[in-house]
Design brief:
The protein is α+β, with helices and mostly antiparallel strands. Helices cover 27% and strands 26% of the residues.
Length: 106
């Protein structure tokens, strides 16, 4: 089926975004994360991956698993930056951002 050139916006909701840069093992990673109408998200821009997350303060383990899973799909040309320590990176990132996600919006 060919694209007919028409795109329809079916819903429009506000979302939040926060930006952090994190360093691990000598590499720097730009991360965008925040909340949306159905939960939370993260995009690790420098690795070309994203994941749905939980905004719950108890979501550290869940978020770590979601980030770890997303890292398995990292851009192959950048894979060497995380190869072998994906789980450590996912755990550290989840422990860092989950409290920020669960904080009430100011």
């Amino acid at each position: 089926m060919m694209f007919n050139g028409k795109l329809t916006v079916t819903h429009h909701h506000r979302a939040t975004v926060q930006e952090i840069s994190v360093e691990m093992n000598g590499f720097s990673f730009l991360c965008l994360f925040g909340r949306h109408i159905n939960g939370a998200y993260i995009s690790i821009v420098s690795l070309g991956v994203s994941a749905e997350l939980s905004p719950s303060k108890n979501g550290v383990g869940y978020n770590s698993d979601r980030i770890f899973h997303a890292l398995q799909f990292a851009d192959y040309s950048r894979r060497g930056m995380i190869n072998g320590w994906e789980r450590d990176f996912a755990n550290a990132l989840s422990r860092t951002i989950t409290p920020m996600l669960s904080a009430k919006a100011q």
